[in-house]
Amino acid sequence: MVQTLPKSLTLQEFLKLPETKPASEYIDGAIIQKPMPQGEHSVIQGELTSAANATLKPQKVARAFPELRCIFGGRAIVPDVTVFTWERIPRKENGGVANVFALAPDWTIEILSPDQSQTKVTKNILHCLKHGTQMGWLIDPEEQSVFVYRQTQSTEVFDEPEELLPMPSFARKLQLRVGDLFGWLLE
Prior knowledge:
Layout: E1 2-4, H1 11-16, E2 24-27, E3 30-33, H2 39-56, E4 62-66, E5 70-72, E6 75-77, E7 81-85, E8 107-111, H3 118-130, E9 135-140, E10 145-150, E11 156-158, H4 178-183
Parallel strand pairs: 8-9
Antiparallel strand pairs: 1-3, 2-3, 4-7, 5-6, 7-8, 9-10, 10-11
């Protein structure tokens, strides 16, 4: 659902609006509500967040967050999974995780939902890369493929079960094959 806004609504005014379920994003002057996650989406999102955190969080390398609002470059987006290196996680004075993340993630992951625009999701990934994100994934459960976007390389598609998925440099210890990712749907 896209709502065209009056020209006077700014990003700051959008951020003061009540939260919606599912989340809404502010992109190029429009409020775009994300589709409600369904089964495949939820399984992949949950398992991927858990796998990333099990590997990266204990050594304080990075932390994965599901459905975290990121505000940067004139947009407020809510990727399905974001991963921030440990030293870039915004913190409160007491050391706890902050509520507001006004920066691009180090790794952004989107999971395509039925009837969701692949173009819109790809534009969000490219926006992240433009603002410093190291890597973006677009996971398509229907096609059982993963599109991998990087700042300085061509987009690659991974769709063979035995293919090892590339990781950002900080997450190299996380080893996932295409078959692992989509195998979660069979558990």
